Amino acid sequence: MSTSPASSTPSTPSPTGSAPDLVHGPFTDDPPWLIDPDNLAWKKDLDGVRDLVRREVPKLVKPRRLPEPQRLAVVGRHLGLGVARWYVGARRKGGETSRADLSRRLRLAAEKLGPTYIKLGQIISSGEGLFPAELVDEFKKCRDQVPPQSFADVRRVLESELGAPLETVFSTFEREPLAAASIAQVHRATLKTGEDVVVKVQRATVAELVHTDIKVLAWLAPFLVGRIPIAALTNPPALVELFTETITEELDFRLEAENMLDVGRSLLDLDQHFFVIARPHPTLVTKRMLVMERLEGFAFDDVDGMVNAGIDTVQVVRSGMVAFLEGALLTGVFHGDLHGGNLFVLEDARAALLDFGITGRMSPRKRAAFLRLLMAATMNDAKGQVEAMCELGALPRDSDVDAVVADLGLEGEPIDPTKLTPDELIAEVQRLVKSLLAYGARLPKELMLFIKNLIFLDGAIAAMAPDLDLFAELLHISTHFATNHGQRIAAEIGVDPESYEMDLDGVKGSFGVDPATESFTYRDLLAQRELIRKRMSDHHHGN
After folding, report:
1. Cβ-based neighbours of 178, under 8 Å, separated by 6 or more
2. Long-range contact list for 82-91, CB < 8 A, 24+ apart?
3. Beta bridge partners of 280
4. Which end of the chain is less congested by CB atoms within 10 angstroms, N or C?
C-alpha cells in the first residue's frame, strides 16, 4: 500500500541511525515518533483477538442448509450466468480457449460481486504455478481496478473509529486515495502534530459482507467439485477454507499493526537489514483504521529508475531472497503477500515492506517441517520431502510415505519435461495430480503463502536480474545458511551440518539441464518454460 525497502546479506550496509526504537525493529533512522511495544494501547488482548478470529474460520466455512437467500441469489446469478455461457460456448473448443473464456467470465463476475470476490481473485492472481495460467492472468486485472469508496464513506469510518471529527486529528487529508484495494484504501495525510502519514481505512460494511459471502461460497463450493477447472491441488471447498483463513485476519487492522512489529522483530533477531518497516502510530490504530509513517521510494518495477540512481538491482533481488527465506525458515513469521504493490525501494537500496494484512505464522513444528522440506529438496531426498509434506499438513499425517514416493515416481532420475512429447507431458501432469488427490493432498495456508512469495521473487529476478546464474545463486544461498545458521538448523531438525551437501546435479536435473552445464541464467529458464508451455499448447490444439 505505502511504505519502503532495506538491505541485508553480508554486502548490505546496516542502518547508521541512533533512534532508540531501532532495538525493536528495522525502522527508518529518522523517526516521526518512537515505538515501545510494551506500551501500545491497541496491542491489549490481541492474542485473544487473533485466537477468536482463527476459531471463527470453521464456523464460517461449515456447510449450511442455505445461506442468506438474497446474497445467494445475487452470487448465483452472476457466477451461474458466467459459467453457463462458458459451458454452452467456449468449453466445447477445449484447451486454452476454454480456460481463457471461463477465466474472463469468472473475473467479470467477481468484479460485479464486490470486495470479497475481488480479494479472492487477487489471491489467485498471485498464484502462478498453483492455478491455471489463464485464470492467474485474468485475475491480475483485479489488482489495480478496484474503484475507491467515496470520501464521505472514508470520513464516516474514520470519525467512527476516532470518536471525533477528522479535522481534530489531521491538518491535511487527501481525498483521492493513494491506492484502493478490496478491503481498504490508503490516503496521504498530515497529523495535527506535523508528521506526514499514510492512513489505511477499511471499506464501510466490508466485514459484514465478507462474512456473508464466505457462507455463500462455503455452501456453493461442494457443488463445484470436479465441474470447473479451478486449480490442480485446491478443490473448491479447500480453496474457500484457505481463503477464509487468509481474509478474516485482514479485517482487524490492530492485528496488521502487530504483524508489522512481529515481522520487524523477526528481521531484527536475524540481524537482517534489507527490509524497512514503517512505524505504526502508537495510538492511532483501531480495528478499521491504521495510521503509519509515510515512506517514499522507487516502485518495485521501476528498474530503470533504480539503475539510474545507482542502485544495484541484482543485489536488491539477492538480498530480498535471503531476507525472506531467513524470516520464514528461522523465525516462522513472514510477510505473506509479496508483490510489486507491497514493496518499494529506498534510495539507500533497502526495501520497504507494505501491507501486512496477510502474514505467515508457523508453529515451531511447522517451521521445522519447512526446514526439512527445503533441505531434503536440495539434497534430492524424496522420502524426506514427503515426510515433511505430511508434517506440514499438505498430505495426511498417516500417509504411507514409501507408497507416495513410489506412486509419484520420485526416486528415479528427474524427468526432463522438455524431452517429453506433448501427449507424454500432459499424461505425466495428469498422473501426478491424480496421485496427489488420491492421497488427500491439500494446500496449507503457510505453504501457499510461502510458494506465492517464491513466485513473486521468481518474477523479480526476471525483471531485475535476468542474467543471474541460478545455480551459482542457489549455492550462494545454501552456503549462507550453512555458514550463518548451520548449527541452529542442526539443533532444531536433528541434521548433522557436516553431512549436509547440496545435490547440485539433482537440482540441475529438476530444471531439465545436463549435469555438465555450469551456468543457467533466468533467461535460460524462461526459454525452458516457453518450450514446455508450447508443448502443452500443442497438445490442446491437437485434440
Report:
1. 1, 2, 185, 186, 187, 188, 198
2. 82/106, 82/108, 82/109, 83/228
3. 292
4. C
Per-residue pLDDT of the chain (543 residues; tens, 9 = 90+): 433 333 333 344 444 557 899 999 999 999 999 999 999 999 999 999 999 999 999 999 987 778 888 998 999 899 889 989 998 888 888 777 888 898 899 999 998 898 889 888 877 776 665 677 788 888 888 765 578 899 999 999 999 999 999 999 999 999 999 988 889 999 999 999 999 999 999 999 999 999 999 999 999 888 777 665 544 445 678 778 888 988 999 999 999 999 999 999 999 998 888 899 999 999 999 999 999 999 999 988 899 999 999 999 998 988 888 888 888 889 999 998 888 888 889 998 999 999 999 899 988 888 988 888 888 877 778 888 899 989 888 888 888 999 888 888 777 666 665 566 656 655 666 666 667 767 777 778 888 888 888 878 888 888 888 888 888 888 778 888 888 888 888 888 877 666 666 677 777 666 667 777 777 786 777 777 676 666 656 555 555
Handedness of CA 397, 398, 402, 407 (dihedral sign): negative
Residues 294, 271 contacting (CB under 8 angstroms): no
Q: In angstroms, rounded to a whole number, what is the distance separating the alpha carbons of residues 345 and 312? A: 11
Which residues is 214 bridged to in the sheet? none
CB of 474 closer than 8 Å to CB of 378 = yes
Q: Write out the E strands in 243-329.
A: 275-277, 280-285, 289-293, 298-299
List the one residue out of 142, 123, 194, 145 whose CA is nearest residue 448: 123
For residue 271, is it left (φ>0), alpha (ψ between -120 and 50) or beta? left
- How many angstroms separate the CA atoms of 40 and 125, rounded? 35
Is 281:36 a contact under the CB 8 Å cutoff? no
Contact 65, 76 (CB under 8 A): no
Cell of 235: 478443490
